[in-house]
Amino acid sequence: MSAAVAVPPAPMRRAAPRPHPAALLRIAPAWAVEATIVAVALADALLTLISASPLTTGLALVAAAGLLVRRRLPVVSLLLVLPALHVGCAVIAMVIALFSVAERVRRSWLIGVCAGLVFAMQLVVAAPFESPRDLFTAGVSAALFAGGPVALGLLARTGAELRERYEELRSAQEAQREMAARETLARERTVLAREMHDVVSHNVSLIAVQAGALQVSAADAGVRGSARTIRGLSVLTLEELRTMVALLRASGGTTREVHPQPTVSDIPGLVAASGIDAEVSIDLHDGLPSGVQRAVYRTVQECLTNARKHAPGAAVRIDAHQSDEAVHLAVRTGSATEPRQPLPGSGLGLLGLEERAHLLGGTFSAGPAGDGGWEARLAVPVA
Question: What is the pTM of this model?
Answer without folding.
Answer: 0.42
